[in-house]
Amino acid sequence: METTKKWNYIFGPVPSRRLGLSLGVDVIPKKVCTLDCVYCEVGATDKRALHRREYFPAEAIITEVEDALAGYTKLDHISFSGSGEPTLNSKLGEIIRAVKQITSIPVAVITNGTLLFLEDVRYDLTAADVVLPSLDAVTQEVFEKIDRPHPQLRIETIIEGLKEFREEYKGQIWLEIMFAKGFNDQEVEVRKMREVIKEIRPDKVQLNTVIRPPSERGVEAVSQSRLKEIQALFDEHCEIIGTFDKHSPGSSGTSNSTVILTLLERRAMTLDGLTSSQNASRESIVESLRTLKDAGLIVSFIHQDVEHYRAKEAAKAKQSQKRAGSRLSK
């Protein structure tokens, strides 16, 4: 039976196109990140940062993961991602290693890869089973255009960090490239990417595009035909990420509005996505969404002709303030 507790650091399970059914662990307040990517589904970055700190108590996160695992079954991964860049949490390695002592479920870290030039970040990530960094550009001009980095970040340094991590890490590296139309899909940039990625040597190269609602208006997906053209330039380890089509077994139970709200506080989701992630019937999910909407906690909107749901900004801000407390001001 699924838990109905309101978590502070856990969210999901989330239907991931890359990781299957994934229980999310959020170790960063919204939205502390090294980048302010134009396509980000979490929203605009208002706290660009480079220096690592604990942010939330490591012990509290570890305890919550352990409690959550008693209620969630049939997970494909436990993924560290969520509201910001997870490697900004200085206790990330400690938390991952503690989780590995609790469960045999593979641990994944979804990172933008910008801090891999730091030795302590690379060490922290060696504890994970799979690391999913991103690399949207290989020239500074395009990097600044699509990812809008912290002013001190240089793409050359980030690339060197990825190469060093490959030399040190024995697990799987799945490198994601997020393409946005007119930002980084030009032929000259793509061909430069190919040469750089050969030097990084990831286990997989995963091509993605803007499917979920982006933080900036006017940011559009590249076509599937263009993704296939780009895929043809890369080697056999390159794949185009498809849509999530896995459904939780036994989808006849009752959904929990609190769990759904926790998901929608972090990103917008569709009815199909919520149904895939919850051990509940579609009708029950619809009823929970109606209850949350009537209470003024969520809103709906249309993106790419599909209805999406997300938490209202006031609700998200209140939850973020509760979780972070006074830690950010110290």
Précis, in short:
This protein is α/β, with parallel strands linked by helices and 330 residues long.
Keyphrases for this structure?
single chain; 330 residues; alpha/beta; TIM Barrel; 8-stranded mixed beta sheet; 3-stranded antiparallel beta sheet; 11 helices; 35% helix; disordered C terminus
Q: How would you sum up the major sheet? A: 8 strands, mixed
**What is the mean pLDDT?**
86
Q: What's the domain count? A: 1
Question: What's the helix count?
Answer: 11
How do the strands and helices of this protein lay out in sequence?
Layout: E1 10-16, E2 20-26, E3 32-33, E4 47-48, H1 58-69, E5 77-81, H2 92-102, E6 107-110, H3 119-125, E7 130-132, H4 140-147, H5 155-168, E8 172-179, H6 187-200, E9 204-209, H7 224-233, E10 238-240, H8 257-264, E11 269-270, H9 271-277, H10 282-294, E12 298-303, E13 306-311, H11 313-324
Helix pairs in contact: 1-2, 2-3
Structure description:
With 330 residues, this protein is an alpha/beta fold. It has one domain (10-329): Alpha-Beta Barrel (TIM Barrel), CATH 3.20.20.70. The chain has helices at 58-69, 92-102, 119-125, 140-147, 155-168, 187-200, 224-233, 257-264, 271-277, 282-294, 313-324; strands at residues 10-16, 20-26, 32-33, 47-48, 77-81, 107-110, 130-132, 172-179, 204-209, 238-240, 269-270, 298-303, 306-311. The strands form three sheets. It has an eight-stranded mixed sheet.
